[in-house]
Structure formats: structure tokens, C-alpha cells
Amino acid sequence: xxxxxxxxxxxxxxxxxxxxxxxxxxxxxxxxxxxxxxxxxxxxxxxxxxxxxxxxxxxxxxxxxxxxxxxxxxxxxxxxxxxxxxxxxxxxxxxxxxxxxxxxxxxxxxxxxxxxxxxxxxxxxxxxxxxxxxxxxxxxxxxxxxxxxxxxxxxxxxxxxxxxxxxxxxxxxxxxxxxxxxxxxxxxxxxxxxx
Length: 195
Description:
single chain
């Protein structure tokens, strides 16, 4: 490029990058080579246990997804007070995400479809959260469960990516406010329908 060139390359570069960001960006499991290096073996040794890098990736994600489900279920099973179950489930979900940031990103911030291997774990947890959401909204428990998950995901994702922000409350306090707002909304809706 010369000074005589009238192109605004800077603007073109920014526009091209923005165009490329129209699609979700890749979030990836560490490379097969870096995993082999961490284990002190040659990359070819991985193929004795996994036919492909995709199989290794799937095994990693299956294990992490099972770990998340177990964390939430264990927290719920350890609590007797049904009134606290939504708070407990949210706290466990948020704590797991904060403790496993890379895995959390791979599970919930990538554009990958949910493979059948992980799908076996999801319905168990989903059914429990929907049952709990039924306490807040018996008319639309699935929609309420999705709303809860969206909020919990937002708490985890934003705190993973915006560590420098002053949130003004802990993640657990945010979860309690969220649950309280849903419960209050339901109580208010119920009081309006009473003759």
C-alpha cells in the first residue's frame, strides 16, 4: 500500500473482523499434542485410547458434564428444606461453573451440538430443575426452568469474563435475589387472582 492508495484499510480491517464475529467463535478443548505433553507421552500414544481427537474431546466433555450434574444433584440431595432447593441448585451450578471455567465455556459457550453421550445426563438434572420451577410457576415450569438456567448462566459467564467488574454482591447473593424475585412475582400473581 502506498500513501496514494485512498483505501481506508483500517476501517476495512475492523469491518472484516466484525463480519467474522457474526458467527460464534470457537471454544476448544486443549490440543491433542498439549494433552499428550502434559502426560509425558508422544501424541501417537493417545490413539491407543482414543481413535481420534474428537473422541478424546467427547470423553473430556462427557466427564465434565457428569461432574456438573453430580454437583447440583449432590447439593440438592443434601438439603431437606424444599423451599431452599432452587437456591441450592443455583448456588451449586454457579459454584461449579466458577470452579471449572474452561469446561464451563466448552459446555455452554460453544456452538457445538449436545452429543448423545452427554444427553443421557441432562434429562435427569433438567427434570429436577423443572420440578423445582413448578413451585414458582405451576403453569409454566419448563419456561421458568429455562429462565432460571439463563440467569444462572449469565451469572457464571459474566463473572468468568468480566473479573475486573465490581458486581456489588456475591454470585450467591445474586442467585438469592433472582429466586426471591421469581417467588415474589408468583406470590403477587396469586394474590391478584384470589377473589
